[in-house]
């Protein structure tokens, strides 16, 4: 079978566009669906009966924030198994509260909650915008949901001047209730701001044909307006918000679009990984199992198929930081642009086994791509992924891998320009390999 190879410059250019167009999980899912539509995948509604055929391509979404795309191959699932790649659409950020308006000392602010394990200090002094989903009624009383994105910088969280906090460079704990509500504008006299009306006005810009009577609720998130970029004296780095884990969503998507295998292939991008995955759309929820049961059937066909299937859980890995190298185990220090990272944990925070690790190393050898491994220091904890959750739910062989990343969970993260292309090439090979059986 001919090996597929992505052009690095083109691939990274398209990656930057995808990152900029995906400020929220809703927008990321919409963009993934748009690319699947363009590639000839058929959209399926979970509410409808499905009529699937061999040799076809399909996708379905749930809550507008999680998506599963798959190919049926020859349709002989119990004999072939599925080649599956998993990632997640959400990232740590600041989420607007239900009754958010704050008017303090002449400033109009919005109250926020911290979504996920965000690194808060980089959120200060950044040009922020607001995006998400709003649900509204039209003049006939019908409910609608629409995505909105203010795009322009409309808010900021200013730092306190060093003159008023001389210990700021030594110790400065951040109180998420008190210190991080963004400032959106100054108030004039006794002006009262109607936040909901601002959303209505924005909705009319986003969808001029809509006739919103009342916005009943929303899920809105602040994000950094600085665009994703290739940086460094030698163009070594990708700098962007939400690399964790839209980087894996994009590489998995491009691999699926490039796959030409007769084997059934699947990509799942779950929401809510950063907050535990226990939801209708998360990896600890029923979404993937529901879809697989509709494709394969329940009981013995499902069990047989899963025992011939393999899942690669693709999430970012901690690159070693040159200023903090002692935070890594000395023998496990992943470096950007030196290959994807196999993630291993004795306590099953990662789902990698010796067999699934060997399988991935075998793919790397075939693709002539270097590979690294990560184990956290024994005296430190590590993060978690959708890998163990999905493995436990389905009983499928699972591997946790990721691309080396610095500043993970910051408002702007850093990855290598060579790594994303290498991962896409590997995942395409994974989808296309005729036999991945371990005997």
From TrEMBL:
NCBIfam families: PRK02813.1
Protein family: Belongs to the peptidase M18 family.
Enzyme class of the recorded protein, top EC level: hydrolase
InterPro entries: Peptidase_M18 (IPR001948), Peptidase_M18_dom2 (IPR023358)
UniProt keywords, alphabetically: Aminopeptidase, Hydrolase, Metal-binding, Metalloprotease, Protease, Zinc
Keyword Hydrolase: yes
Required cofactor(s): Zn(2+)
Protein name: M18 family aminopeptidase
EC number: 3.4.11.-
GO MF, one annotated term: aminopeptidase activity
Organism from which the protein derives: Kistimonas scapharcae
Top-level lineage group: Bacteria
Lineage: Bacteria, Pseudomonadati, Pseudomonadota, Gammaproteobacteria, Oceanospirillales
Keyword Hydrolase belongs to the record: yes
